[in-house]
Structures
1.
Amino acid sequence: MAIAVGAAAPDFSLLDQGGEAHTLSQHKGRNVILAFFPAAFSGVCDTEMCTFRDSLSELENANADVIGVSVDARFSNAEFATKHNLPFPILSDYNRSAIKAYDVVWPNFAGMDGYDAATRSVFVIDGDGTVQYAWATEDSQGNQPPYDDVKAAAAKLG
């Protein structure tokens, strides 16, 4: 079960696609859309991150920063971000600390024993670091987040 609404969002320190460290606490005072995805360059994940890219102005109007997180290496994430022109950080959770903290671990991803990836999940976190919206799917292979719900949650925080 993923981190619940009303819980304090766990902080993290992860490298983005350019090698710069990011923490959740750096965004204090701003709302955050934290989107975990299983794997760069997979069709559903491509669509997910591009949908957030295409919704960015709407989310920025809600004082929200978008952050993508996968367990892929930052070098893969860099190519992924470049290919899709993603203007927000794509963080590498290569040591799986964030997916464990948010309880969004997809064990044995793609039938690879011992290879844990992120379950497709989205958290809207307010400027004080409290989870105000949480969504996670049991079927990360095909399900997309409910984008309208995510946008509404962010807009509500304004």
Note: Residues 43-54 form the longest helix (12 residues).
2.
Amino acid sequence: MTNKHTITIIGGGLAGSEAAWQIANRNCRVRLIDMKPHTFSPVHSQRELAELVCSNSFRSNDPSSAIGLLKEEMRRCNSLIVQKADETAVPAGKALAVDRDLFAKKVTENLEQHPLVEIVREEISEIPPESSSYTIIATGPLTSEPLAESLATLTGRDRLAFYDAIAPIVYTESLNMDIIYCKSRYDDGPGDYLNCPMDKESYLHFIEELGKATCVPLKSFEEIKYFEGCLPVEVIRSRGDDTLRFGPMKPVGLEDPKTGKTPYAVVQLRKENRQETTYNMVGFQTKLTYSEQKRIFSLIPGMEKVEFARLGSIHRNTFICAPELLQPTLQFKTRPDLLLAGQLSGVEGYIESAAMGLLAGINSARLASGNSPVIPPPETALGALIRHLTESEPKKFQPSNINFGLFPLWEKKVPKKLKGRLRAEKGLEALQNWMKDEEF
């Protein structure tokens, strides 16, 4: 029997789409509201739900990594986002990268075809008043100004924000494959990445010009604050001449098969789609002006005549102070009928955002059905993210990707090389027991 209450989700990104899927598959009706295509944020351009606007990579698929463990936990919880990412994967070494257009298309189709999902295309400018039904806010870090103001009024405090940058996408046919070579780090033979090799002279010239390049200025009232896990390439360069060589341009494990030597530095390009017509510049998110991007990036060997499918840009990411405002169930402390999901809650990353949508969806469906909400064990990646959101020091709270530093301390010393595998084993065992106890 279908629950009589309809759960409302505002926002059709990764978190909102995942939440809708979890709710509908628990026999509850869901009304998913998204402002596209009537209104677009500064970085969105497509009608489809779950549009990827930054990288097309969901990062490592290694189950012994924290992000790999989170994906595996979500697979076991019937995640729509991870399922469709697996189905639309493009070769990317040990990472899970997707054909972004096909991915969004498949997610949208699955939700449109579900009999308990209603998709409404309109913009919501205010948080709904308190009611007996449940609402999930999943509008993301680029929440529209009116809704963000309404959220600020609800929380009783100013919004928090950092600045995020997007990497350029280039056309494959404009690349010089006489210079560029295929290889994944440490792998033998042809790999899934294109590599643009630099000798010392070309590297020093590149960082010199990068250091002099003009960036898009922030407004006079805007504080410069970046997420450390996604720094603009020019900000990394400003921290020293070798920071790029030990960061996104690290050449280790990328010997050039044409010369048999390891370059002084390497710019890597990752497939954007299955047709291999476009590539993403790995780690090259930037706030350079468009004209400077064209000038500076054409200095990269093999990209002298590069043409861009999309240039890089910078945008403002908004999030709340979750430790002060959220319960571990993702319900607001002052509004139990209202749940928060996605990047707006204070997680960072595609999968992390979808994971919060998964939990918000599960809990809103349970609440609507008269059951108690659930909290995943801290030994799981899902539980580690909830701990970050609700147990961090409020004054120091910052968005975070999943990492093993968010997990409980080891009870005894564990060899470093075994930590990832043992974390994964312990996490998946805890997840299995939790799902069994909670009758998923």
Note: The chain has twelve helices and 16 strands.
3.
Amino acid sequence: MKVILNMDVKDLGKKGELVNVSDGYAKNYLIPRKIAKQADAGAMNELKNREAATAYRIAQEKAAAEKNAAALEGKTITVKANAGANGKLFGSVTSKEIAEKIKEEFGIEVEKKKIVSEDIRQYGTYPFTVKLYTGIQAQMYVFVGE
């Protein structure tokens, strides 16, 4: 019997998957406990609609990430910092500061966890990478000065 799972079941499948199980297992265990529902025409149509909606949402997110990557690629942001006489900063420039500057200058919100950079502890220009989506990233630069 084919059933659609309402929750994750160990060794059987994840929520929303269509699986084939024995009739007794479905009728006596899965369906009465609302772990699964029988895969009739209405349930199958609902499953297909949910999958189509998920695919559409993923396509929209990916298109937005590609657009943002094109807008950010190769750009330079400027961060002001205080330093000692030899150009060594008091502290460092963090991913949080970089994310705030990107939002301020380009209007694109980026999580600080998605910014990959080396330790910035002196004046100068440093490259960093912004990961916008799986497989989509932009290479940018940060200029640290007074």
Note: The longest strand covers residues 124-133.
4.
Amino acid sequence: MGGFLSIMLTIFGIFLITGAILVILNDNQDSGRKVAWILIIAMLPVIGLILYIVFGLNFRKPGIFKVRNREFLDTFEERASEQTKELLFGTGQEKDIRERYRGLSRLLKKDSGLTVCSNNEIEIITSGGRKLEALVNDLLAAKHHIHFEYFYFLKDDGSRKIKKLLMQKAREGVKVRFIHENIANITIWEGYYNEMKEAGVEVVKFTNPNIFLLSKFNYRDHRKIVVIDGKVGYTGGMNIGDDYFFRWRDTHTRITGNAVAALQYCFLNSWITSGGKIEGNFDEFFPQDRVTHDDKLVQIIPDEPDREFPILHMGAVWTASHSSRYLYIQTPYFVPPEPLLLALKSAALKGCDVRLMVPAKADLFFMDPANKSFYKECLEAGIRIFEKGGRFIHAKTLVSDDYLSIIGSANMDCRSLELSYEINSYIYNEEIARENRSIFLNDLKECNEIKLDEWENRPWYKKFIQAVMRLFAPLL
């Protein structure tokens, strides 16, 4: 009997592994990602299969987005005014973008529907202390509502200061809605959020995986969004925590003007899709008196794994392909999917000044050799690589040709561009681009440039570790 059971279990295991491999081969994801998963399952059949179910299943399928978000889409269609819909989805502002960038704007709009918004003021924030100061002042001034959505909302001093302020405003009668990414913050006990609920803050979890939906562990809300009274918005790379406020070098934006409506739309989508409730119409969330004294063009673009297309990946590829004079990139993690890597190398080879700035040492031990595993081929193509010392650089920015700036939550890696829920701001403006370029050049003062001949002479064991990590890069 024991022998028969053993044979049946073996057959069942072979059936599962074969089925998983067939699913991987039939998937439309990157070939490198397929090879990495097949390699893991081949080396560690049982563990590999479990890991694939939890972390590997690809949910970027046509139609799933609309099914998953049907409640929000129906609610928004019913309760939002035609003026708000025109502001978010109209095409009237596309003519104000330089002609060569209108294709990018249409590409980005294709998936989310969100268009370019005019009449915006933008403050680029490169100091966590400045973000904390500005955010505190804006929260204190809130009259109607505060909307918060963050990947990390920690328990250190800076985080508790913001938490107490949110609770204070809720007690004053301001409607405070708070989305927390519960997988990333799994070490924070429920009581931390219960204190907020008791003060009147409405709290929802972005994801709530269970034994039957283990694959949800892999799809995390990496966005950083604040909307205050529908008039002031924050988004970018900084989470809520002391590393971001006091220790790291990051880039964030404070926006006033019409683009705040797009941030609001993205937040409400997350809120309702995560189980939050909204009563009444949406007019109160999209006020028409967003006062601004500037005319910067901004396109807010969200991405998520259950949309049909990896739109932020496509946007980065478009930017690399169309940059002619220069393309400067800051990212803490450089593990690009193959199409983006090819576009970056192609840009450098055609004579574009492509520069990449990454931290001298990543905050995650396995990301350091993963980042470095791409150096050699980038250097050979003419991409200049700068490792920043001093404060860890967590910024996620691109700036190109003194016109296009991209500032957001998405790293230049497979996780951000294929798996996570992200949000980026595409800014079409000469002044902002020149400011971003100056920020990049100023950060070069703390950088060491990597040269190809020196890089090829690094120790053999580092080459080996980096080569191994490169195999698993599509999974990072």
Note: The two ends are 44 Å apart (CA to CA).
